[in-house]
Write a structure and sequence with these properties.
Elements lengths: L1 H9 L6 H11 L4 E5 L5 H12 L15 E4 L3 H12 L2 H4 L5 E4 L5 H9 L4 E4 L1 H8 L4 H5 L4 E4 L9 H16 L4 E6 L5 H9 L12 E5 L5 E5 L19 H10 L3 E4 L3 H14 L7 E4 L5 H12 L5 E4 L14 E5 L5 H8 L10 E6 L4 H14 L13 H14 L14 H8 L10 H13 L14 E3 L2 E3 L3 H9 L9 E6 L4 E6 H5 L6 E4 L2 E9 L2 E6 L20 H15 L6 H16 L8 E8 L2 E6 L5 H18 L4 E5 L4 E5 L7 H6 L6 H8 L2 H15 L6 E2 L2 E2 L2 H18 L4 H14 L2 H12 L3 E5 L8 H9 L4 H32 L13 H5 L11 H6 L9
Parallel strand pairs: 1-6, 1-7, 2-4, 2-5, 3-4, 5-6, 8-13, 9-11, 9-12, 10-11, 12-13, 16-20, 21-27
Antiparallel strand pairs: 14-15, 16-17, 18-19, 19-20, 21-22, 22-24, 23-24, 25-26
């Protein structure tokens, strides 16, 4: 690798030891995973190794040496930057080589040019690679690939796109058993497992040295701090600090040359873009907005402005999370909690994105408990506690799609001109080399093959579902129309149908979900692409708009999949911080800022801790409220709340209302319930969990919703031809029809079972729920009877109120609850002060001290006057009796 060393030296760099380690491993023919800090030089660690393996075209030969290296990126936005980075060393190290780019944005002229002269290296996406596998001459075009680099592997491993990559790699390994595969990541916890998932196994056994895990240890400063609110308050709820943080965010942006402001969802990005311009109208043109629904030309303009340093700030979502190189970015602000350590580290790496430069991320809380999350996230990040990610287990919809893909371009025949196709036995063994399908049985494979052959038991009469046929011992696609439809919707990215947003005068702003537009009437205003727009009409799957002139307010679209659940690692870290606070540990600046709320929680109730399960109870005109605080994340709490309500109703008929957030859950019983500690503990039993969870949910509706995605991935539902897409209503109707037909006439259809399994594993995170129940069942209960909601209970009430009332009524109700809670807290303070005056020499109780009477006394109705023992229960800082 002397040439690589010389190139580094000529550009003023010196290779790191981990880069040399990767070069040596690739030269020896080893696959592996490189895990290193963002901006530490991962790209050139693997690219220099790949360049050393390139074969130059023979002297005098026309054309290139053929496609030899594939670089897979999870986002089209990364492809252009990656291509430029890979081209940079070519003049010095391989002047004869070319790096091409092929994504959904690549024009037909460029694709045709690549077919005439294939580049030696190609930057592409999983979807575009799968589309290449459908070509009849796929084996000839891709059989010479000897190196595959999978960038940002952590973004792919945990979803069906990662499964799609595994199947494509299994196909490439069959054509070239000496293929080497390298993954790049900066934020993974289970590195060995992630590497094994990526590199797979070669058909017939090992074909090279064992894979190598390389940890790139680079001394790179990481700064995680928090923008502290001036008045965090003693009570808080989701979003209540937003307006208060507007000016501090503006002030921070003013201090830096270029700032990235990250939000977790697109609607929040639209809101914060408007907030910044409202505070600083003169920033128009130097503050920009970036998310996946904006038109490609808008996104490219923003990205170019960042690279050139022309923009003061960009408000963005995960669309700028990954390895885009924006060297001018000095600061990163994260609005609200990142909800996970890996995501926080990834976003921090957008600043100082170069070796030797510090990365800094500043957290901006939207409610007071996010201050505790911020301190917990910093401790966990600096300790290296990053979330693990695992592959889905043998999703049959992806397998069904892959069977048709290989039947189109399988390269079964030695002569590529004979077209595609596959043999069942060989393909079964090949698919099982993909770790996601390592446990695939022959019965499951044969079912999938029969399904694409004749559509299962219920679709045999419909020729369009006879997608493959056995011809001379080879499975092939017999119909050009079937082949075309399959190629048009290859991939596993499934979202609600969207429509373009267009100006009446011409021009496109971006895309928005059809369901949102369907709720608008002519003249309604909404916020999109940083503008307040007036809806005019819908025509040909496009929403036509004009700029709103009457007022500057509008509804902000809420895109599907908006909320991110708290990760296990961050939830545990938050509980550890609360445990420290209970012992008087407020040394972190965030904990000092949150201290009024935490002390209020301790006086009115208790602070949740890892050693017990806090259960708060009180009665109101609505009924009897139970609040639980597992800190297991929103998705787990949804399943847990449904499960607890169902088990309670099974023993005693009642009507329940439920509310959840990332920290806890509320179960509101319309009729009072007298529950012993034993009865409460029994609710968390793991016995008959699967049956109880399915019984507690509207599992049929959830499974039907899941089946919509499965039906589209499996090719049952066609999204439409270019220029004539089907509407969301048509797609939903089609998938619902298939779901009902299969249930009635093909009950053994395995796609139905997959839909039910995905509801449990993805929407409810059944394994996390099982683990949470096991942990909670072993914990002693700490029951607290409340007169009014505690600071931790109030956000759960607000979550439920939002589903019931208008914004105005919600504000009135919150104001009333706050007034009652503040009066209760003031009364507790007055009692504490009086007792302190009478017993000034007595030792003070700890923050967490609780009167025994309060733990055992039954909850009282809110209308009743407080009993003496209840007054004692809210006084946790009173001196102990001598």
């Amino acid at each position: 690798m002397a040439a690589a060393e010389a190139w580094f030296a000529a550009n003023g760099y010196r290779p790191f030891d981990f880069q040399r380690e990767v070069w040596a491993a690739m030269a020896a023919g080893a696959s592996g995973l490189l895990h290193a800090t963002t901006g530490s030089g991962k790209t050139y660690a693997v690219w220099m190794g790949a360049l050393a393996r390139l074969r130059a075209p023979q002297r005098g030969a026309k054309g290139s040496g053929g496609l030899q290296v594939l670089w897979l990126t999870p986002m089209r936005a990364l492809a252009a930057d990656t291509t430029k980075a890979l081209q940079r060393p070519l003049p010095a190290l391989a002047p004869w080589a070319q790096v091409g780019q092929r994504t959904g944005d690549t024009g037909s002229a460029e694709r045709a040019r690549q077919e005439r002269r294939p580049p030696e290296a190609l930057v592409t996406t999983p979807e575009s690679l799968t589309l290449m596998l459908t070509r009849e001459n796929a084996a000839a075009e891709l059989g010479g690939v000897h190196t595959v680099i999978v960038d940002e592997w952590h973004e792919l491993i945990g979803n069906k796109r990662g499964v799609q990559v595994q199947l494509a790699l299994a196909r490439l390994r069959r054509w070239n058993p000496r293929l080497i595969v390298w993954g790049l990541s900066a934020t993974l916890g289970n590195l060995e497992q992630a590497m094994a998932t990526l590199v797979g196994s070669s058909p017939g056994g090992s074909a090279g040295p064992p894979p190598l895990l390389v940890r790139g240890k680079v001394d790179k400063a990481l700064v995680i701090d928090t923008l502290l609110p001036h008045e965090p308050g003693r009570f808080s709820w989701g979003g209540h600090l937003g307006a208060q943080m507007q000016q501090p965010v503006v002030d921070e942006i003013e201090k830096s040359s270029t700032t990235l402001v990250f939000t977790n969802v697109r609607s929040q990005a639209e809101i914060w873009y408007q907030l910044l311009l409202a505070a600083k109208p003169e920033w128009a043109g130097v503050v920009a907005l970036h998310h996946g629904s904006l038109d490609k030309s808008v996104r490219e303009w923003v990205e170019a402005g960042l690279k050139e340093g022309r923009l003061k700030a960009v408000v963005a979502t995960s669309s700028l999370d990954l390895g885009v190189d924006f060297l001018p970015v000095e600061r990163v602000l994260q609005i609200g909690s990142a909800k996970g350590i890996a995501r926080l580290l990834q976003r921090a790496g957008r600043s100082g994105h170069a070796p030797g430069r510090a990365s800094r991320v500043t957290l901006v809380p939207t409610h007071t408990l996010e201050l505790v999350e911020a301190a917990a996230a910093r401790r966990a990040a600096l300790a290296g506690r990053v979330e693990s990610r695992t592959s889905p287990n043998k999703p049959l919809d992806v397998l069904v799609q892959h069977l048709v893909t290989v039947a189109l371009g399988g390269g079964f025949a030695a002569n590529a001109k004979e077209g595609g196709g596959f043999g069942a036995d060989a393909l079964f063994e090949e698919v099982r080399t993909a770790p996601a399908y390592a446990e695939l049985t022959r019965e499951e494979f044969d079912w999938a093959l029969a399904f694409v052959e004749r559509g299962g038991d219920s679709l045999a009469a419909y020729p369009e579902y006879h997608r493959v046929q056995l011809v001379d011992g080879v499975w092939r696609v017999p119909d050009r129309g079937i082949a075309r439809r399959h190629r048009l919707q290859v991939g596993t990215i499934v979202s609600d149908a969207s429509m373009q947003v267009k100006w009446l005068s011409g021009g496109t702003l971006g895309t928005i979900e059809e369901g949102f537009i369907a709720r608008l009437n002519k003249g309604d205003h909404f916020v999109f692409a940083g503008r307040v727009l007036e809806y005019v009409r819908t025509q040909d799957m496009a929403a036509y708009v004009r700029r709103a002139t009457k007022n500057n307010k509008g509804v902000v679209p809420a895109w599907a999949g908006g909320r991110m659940p708290l990760s296990n690692e961050l939830g545990d870290a938050v509980l550890a911080m609360l445990e420290g606070a209970a012992q008087g540990d407020f040394f972190e600046p965030e904990m000092q800022c949150a201290r009024p709320m935490l002390q209020a929680q301790a006086r009115l109730s208790q602070l949740p801790q890892r050693g017990h399960l806090l259960v708060e109870e009180f009665r109101s005109r609505e009924g009897q409220h139970f609040f639980f605080y597992p800190f297991a994340g929103r998705n787990v709490h949804i399943g847990l709340a449904q499960l607890l309500a169902w088990r309670l109703a099974r023993s005693e008929p009642n009507t329940f209302s439920l509310s959840v957030n990332d920290y806890g859950l509320e179960v509101l019983a319309a009729k009072p319930m007298a529950l012993s500690d034993e009865a409460l503990t029994a609710l968390f039993s793991g016995r008959d969990l699967l049956a109880d969870v399915l019984a507690s949910l509207n599992s049929g509706e959830l499974a039907q919703r899941r089946f919509r995605e499965i039906a589209r991935v499996a090719g049952l539902v066609f999204s439409g031809y270019p220029g004539a897409p089907k509407s969301l209503r048509q797609l939903q109707a089609s998938s619902s029809l298939f779901y009902e037909v299969f249930r009635k006439y093909d009950a053994g259809n395995r796609l139905l079972g997959q839909a039910e399994g995905e509801v449990l594993s993805q929407e409810l995170e059944l394994e996390r729920l099982r683990a949470a129940l096991k942990r909670l069942a072993a914990l002693p209960l700490q029951r607290v009877a409340l007169k009014h909601p505690s600071p931790f209970a109030l956000p759960l009430l607000v979550e439920r109120f939002r589903e019931q009332l208008t914004t105005e009524k919600l504000k009135d109700r919150i104001d009333r609850l706050l007034a009652e809670a503040e009066r209760s807290l003031d009364a507790a303070d007055a009692v504490a002060g009086a007792r302190a005056a009478r017993s000034s020499k007595a030792p003070r109780a700890t923050l967490q001290r609780k009167a025994a009477a309060a733990a055992s006394s039954p909850p009282a109705a809110a209308e009743d006057g407080p009993r003496p023992e209840e007054k004692e229960s809210i006084d946790h800082e009173t001196p102990g009796k001598p």
